[in-house]
Amino acid sequence: MIHQENFSLAGANQKIILGDLTYDDKNTKAPLVIFVHGFKGFKDWGAHHLTARYFAQNGFRYLKFNLSHCGVTLDKPNDVSDMETFATNTFSKEMLDIDLVINYAVENLGVKEVFLIGHSRGGGLSILQAANNPHVKGLITWSSIADFSSLWKKEQELEWKKEGKIHVVNARTKEKCL
Questions:
Q1: Which residue in 122, 113, 112, 109 sits closest to 151, CA to CA?
Q2: pLDDT tens readout for residues 4-16
Q3: Is 121 helix (H, G, I), strand (E, B) or coil?
Q4: Integer angstrom CA distances of residue 149 from 78, 91, 104, 124, 142
Q5: Which residues contact residue 93 at a Cβ distance below 8 angstroms, ignoring those fewer than 6 apart?
Q6: Rg of the Cα atoms in the chain
């Protein structure tokens, strides 16, 4: 039978990382895949729950989590709603969160190695993590960014340097995010 267990841990700046582990109870020691979502994304977006179930049915445990500063809250898990936290996000915080999740898996799930799947910006983060973390033994990217500077327009860099932030429009909600 397929099960899903929720967990939480302190991420960057002690912000909460919410996650879940999907597995087949007949194979509780299966290899572990960790999914890293993209920018303005989250663990429960789209078909991520179906993907987790598919992997669990095919011999893997599948861990997905929300990066601590992605702006998703426990009350609103399907939307970026915590704009203050979202505005303080950095690549360094995301890399720390991924490292913390990998360490959590190694310490609590009986694994010495993990496989990463990263989507979009999560793909870029996963590539960097795979290059630097000895626990990462495999990597898959889905529509990964090739360059982190592709996430903003060149003309926004002047605003960024002057104001210390840039505005990003949420394509789904049309809301301006800082």
A1: 122
A2: 999 999 999 999 9
A3: helix
A4: 26, 12, 30, 11, 18
A5: 11, 12, 13, 67, 68, 69
A6: 16
Which of 9, 29, 31, 12 has the alpha carbon at shortest distance from 20?
Answer: 9
Tell me the pLDDT band of 80, cut-offs 50, 70 and 90: confident
Question: Residue 72: helix, strand or coil by DSSP?
Answer: coil
pLDDT band for position 178 (cuts 50, 70, 90): low
Query: Of 36-50, 75-89, 149-163, where does mean pLDDT reach its minimum?
Result: 149-163
Q: Which of 36, 7, 42, 37 is nearest to 22 (CA)?
A: 7
Between the CA of residue 90 and those of 23, 93, 164, what are the distances in Å?
31, 5, 12
| Residue 82, φ and ψ in degrees, nearest 5 | -95, 85
Within 13 A of 175's CA, how many CA atoms are on the CB side? 11
Task: Evaluate if residue 171 carries a pLDDT over 90.
Answer: no
